[in-house]
Amino acid sequence: TTPPRKQQRLLAAIRELHSQHQQSSDVQALFTALLTAVQDLTGSPYGAAGEVAVDAETQLELTPWASVYPQDANPKRFETLLTQVMNGGRRRLVTKSARTPRRTTGKAVFPDAFLGLPIFSGEELVAVIGIANRPAGYDKEMGAFLDPLLCSAGTLIQSHRNARQRLDAEQGQRQALSECMYIETSLRSIAGTVSSATGDKY
Q1: Residue-level pLDDT at 25
Q2: Average pLDDT for residues 178-193, to the nearest whole number?
Q3: Which one, of 90, 70, 74, lies nearest residue 82 by Cα?
Q4: Which residues pair with 189 in a beta bridge?
Q5: What does the pLDDT read at residue 165?
Q6: pTM reported for the whole predicted model
Q7: Torsional class of 145: left (φ above 0), alpha (ψ -120 to 50), beta (otherwise)
């Protein structure tokens, strides 16, 4: 059972995310707010979040919108783990090891603990988020705790997508109308030229 105070923090994070959505149509701001909320709720110093879409070849494509990485770390391993979350559509947990492996440079491999979570809108995967290096590590219960926040985030991300699609459709209609008007104007100009030439001939 989630402690009442922790539950209150979760509900406050959900309200803050909805407030961010209402105040701005900037999808990057939404992902930044989501990542910050998840980091705060879990005590995770690092993380990243990105939007998932299907490209022209029907392959999943990840667009990173927010990230917090250690300055001296290579995020490649983290990004690989996040891609695995996207491709699998399920949680990915890397437990904190007693001895953090190190490269030949002496730097710790990043991340040494990781929790990756898919974000759905209905049955459609719309985003993924990963958090890393929580001192106490991660477990499955933490992912379940975050589910209400991720469910809300999925709804808001889909809302952003719908708004973008409406805007694209409106722009397409305006462009088509502009092209039609240009063609009509060109035809009238041609007709006027032909008429003038015909009048001169006779």
Answers
A1: 83
A2: 70
A3: 90
A4: none
A5: 74
A6: 0.78
A7: alpha
